[in-house]
Design brief:
The protein has 79 residues and is an alpha+beta fold. The chain contains 4 helices and 3 strands. Strand 2 and strand 3 form a beta hairpin.
């Protein structure tokens, strides 16, 4: 069985992701991990899935537009 690596939302933020891009490109986390210090579980995203999203040309454009404040979730096209 292949072992998968996962990234947390914090890991994604360090990689340049924003909450809007996480929601739009990744949606629900692949796994939830109980967190002993918090009641909210840590959301984990499969590293390979993250890489595939980052390789899409519309991902880069989407993230650049977030910095400019141009993306509105109502006007997004489906991938």
């Amino acid at each position: 069985m292949e072992s998968q690596n996962y990234l947390t939302k914090l890991d994604l933020r360090v990689r340049g992701w924003r909450n809007k891009s996480i929601k739009y490109f990744l949606g629900s986390p692949d796994k939830l991990k109980k967190n002993s210090s918090k009641s909210i579980p840590t959301q984990l995203f499969c590293f390979n899935r993250v890489l595939k999203c980052e390789e899409q040309s519309n991902f880069t454009e989407f993230n650049q537009n977030i910095w400019k404040g141009e993306n509105d979730s109502k006007g997004l096209k489906e991938i």
